[in-house]
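ARCHIVE CARD
Drawer: 12
Card no.: 0347
Subject: one protein chain, sequence and derived structure
Cross-reference: see card 0346
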Amino acid sequence: MYGATEIGSVTFSDPACEHFNPAGVGRPFDGVDIKIVEGEVLVRAPSMFQGYLNEPASGYFHTGDLGHLDEQGNLTITGRLKLLIEVGGLKVNVLEVEDLLAQHPAVAEAAVVAVRVSDTVSRLKAVVTPKCSDRPPVPEEIRRFLRERLTAYKVPRLVEVRDSLPRSPAGKILRRQLEGT
């Protein structure tokens, strides 16, 4: 299931359905309308709230999620708007870069954050943890690995190796703690 506090349950993914998509979060429930605008998932549902104070109501709730609908109406979530980082005027979905970093044989976990160079310029920084503490990842090898798989602007300029990533009590990565230069 996919949903949010503000809109309730939106989709359901049933493996027994003919058009099941294991990569997706399912098809919308009856009465739920999903549209994708500039990559963002917008939802209109009978259960949704009226809106936030001092924000104009559009009839759709802006989820902040990035995604797409397939031909059968299955929704697949591909990222979060707030996790997009602008580099040289181009948007980078950090989840794409993190997924590739996790494929590197020496990397256990990874997070990608923005490092502000100026008010208008950001660079990418990858923070990785080693799979094996006696053989930590080598930053230049990580960058070479990514250059072979990504467009140049998506490759982090900085790669930092840490023993662990900072996490909230709920287990979420505390990205702001990683943003320092």
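Annotation on reverse: The two ends are 38 Å apart (CA to CA). The mean pLDDT is 91.
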